[in-house]
């Protein structure tokens, strides 16, 4: 059975939509939900507040994560079928590799409290699933 090629233009288009959702969600998370607690943690560790260059990098990484998620969706789509099921599978994979793994390391090292990381991971799960479904909606072979 021949498998179609990945439509890179649509991966980027869907990935940019997914990245936009990720970035807007992360803005709300890091300003409204855990912003004050994050500021306290950084201050307690004698670290500066997160500056504009770091924020810019997080925005770029948000878009790259969206593109990567939709690329993964496109790659697994021939096996799992087009639609939300495959998008959720791609989103879950990205969630565990990009969110849980890194955040667990911060907890294990004692840099971040486990309770805050659970909030961030729960938020991130919803965020990446919505982003992956939305981005997959734009993808076509």
C-alpha Rg (nearest Å): 16 Å
Q: Structural class of the secondary elements? A: mainly alpha
- Cα end-to-end separation: 16 Å
Uncertain spans, ≥5 residues at pLDDT below 50?
none
Beta-strand portion reads: under 5%
Largest sheet: none
Number of strands: 0
| Bulk shape | elongated
Overall mean confidence score, pLDDT:
95
Domain unit count: 1
Write structural notes for this entry.
The chain is an all-alpha fold and 141 residues long. Helix content is 82%, strand content 0%. The longest helix has 29 residues, at 52-80.
Question: What's the short story on this structure?
Answer:
The protein is mainly α and 141 residues long. It has one domain (8-138).
Give the helices and strands, then pairings:
Elements: H1 8-33, H2 35-44, H3 52-80, H4 84-108, H5 114-138
Helix pairs in contact: 1-3, 1-5, 3-4, 3-5, 4-5
Properties at a glance:
mainly alpha, 82% helix, 141 residues, elongated
């Amino acid at each position: 059975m021949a498998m179609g090629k990945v439509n890179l233009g649509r991966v980027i288009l869907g990935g940019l939509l997914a990245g936009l959702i990720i970035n807007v969600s992360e803005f709300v998370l890091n300003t409204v939900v855990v912003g004050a607690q994050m500021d306290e943690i950084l201050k307690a560790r004698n670290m500066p507040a997160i500056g504009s260059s770091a924020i810019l990098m997080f925005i770029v990484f948000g878009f790259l994560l969206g593109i990567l998620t939709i690329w993964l969706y496109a790659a697994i789509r021939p096996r799992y079928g087009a639609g939300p099921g495959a998008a959720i599978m791609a989103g879950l994979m990205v969630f565990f590799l990009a969110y849980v793994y890194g955040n667990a390391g911060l907890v294990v090292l004692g840099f971040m409290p486990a309770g805050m990381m659970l909030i961030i991971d729960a938020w991130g799960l919803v965020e990446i699933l919505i982003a992956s479904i939305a981005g997959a909606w734009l993808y076509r072979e």
